[in-house]
Amino acid sequence: MVVTWPFINAMQEEYFFAEAHYKLDAFWKNAGVPNLDLWPVIAAANEPDLTINAWDAHPNERANDLAAAQVGPWLKAHIE
Prior knowledge:
80 residues; 50% helix; 4 strands; 16% strand; single chain; two-stranded parallel ribbon; alpha+beta; two-stranded antiparallel sheet
């Protein structure tokens, strides 16, 4: 199972890495591997400050909360 994170610091109206997400999704589907892409979740939140700070693009606590709300139930559904 795979969870794909977007580049949170690049979340703009035109997400530069969209094509990479589409390709990864197709790859995992062809391989028969369940994949959860968090790009739609992060984009739908429409929150400007989801990184740790201007110099560290890792997801902050709020971004991790958004992800956990999706990943937890998704894992549970696939493990059971």
